[in-house]
Amino acid sequence: MKIHSIDTFPVAVPLTKPFKTALRTVTTAHSIFVKVTCDDGSVGYGEAPPTHVITGDSTGSVTYAIQEVIAPQLIGQDIRHREELFLKLKKAIVRNTSAKAAVDMAIHDLLGQLANMPLYQLLGGFRNEIETDFTVSVNVPAEMAEDAAGYVAGGFTVLKVKVGIGDIAEDIERIRAIRERVGQNVKIRLDANQGWKPKEAVQAIGKMEDAGLAIELIEQPVLADDVEGLRYVTAHTLTPIMADESVFSAKDALRVLQMGAADLINIKLMKSGGIQEAMKINALAEAFGVGCMVGSMIETKLGITAAAHFAASQPNITRFDFDAPLMLSKDIVAGGIEYDGTVIRFAEAPGLGLYQEGMELVEKGEGQ
Ligand code: MG
Q1: 354 CA distance to ligand 1 centroid (A)?
Q2: pLDDT, tens digit, for every residue of 25-48?
């Protein structure tokens, strides 16, 4: 089962509502889909949403990396020798983690098809359904509380709120408004997306603790490369701190874990370069007694399907941040995971469970 060809095609889907974080505002999800075809005719799919502000990847760089650098090295390789294949993929080009992730997903899709098992089962099969949180867009407090109440009425029990954009007092007002509206039974997690300096973060989190806002966890309070600062925040607050942008690779994870710089890790395939490296990050975290969440960029249901299969497979992954497809104005992906309210279910079809005919229409630009 040798790789015969690797193709890419761009997709674009408008969001129903602009998505704003401390790093950027997004109105349309732009992504590159990759199709890996084997000599027996079987096809695997993957996705790379270029996220300049986090991974440094762009539409042009992802397309070039896959077509001109990765494809020539993988074509002709047998997917049954997967360690060799993943090693070639990792060494083909430094960084470019989104391009690698898309190809890694497609290979995992093919491995599932070869084994005739859904990917989550092939990887471990720990859960057969998972529940996602939902992100409340940043707005004036009353509007955020109203939105939050709507999501809770729709069944969501975990809300994620972006902070670190304006001043701390405004952040606290927003969270207070949401907490008062949704009550104590809803989990509220925050994501500062590197928006604070270490001492500022300790002050902000301390104020939230004093205000009794019952925050479940706070993602990436400080700059990605300031792991010492991250350790400082973790050491000086009671609220669990989660590393996100600070952890791309297993090596990054090891450093954060050895320093005790975070209580939790957010794994994303676009940072790790795919499922192969993500499994290693999770195994390291598990050895250190650190739980993991799996999250995503603003991507379509294709990338989330791969991430969800990985996330469901492992007992150490207990949190799931897969709301991105729910923010899109339409679902262009044929097959894959299914959303039933807040719950994500997996098809019993092998691999990622995509429909090839439907995906080929997307490739032709139809159905987009
Ligand atoms: Mg984050």
Answers
A1: 27
A2: 899 999 999 999 999 999 999 999
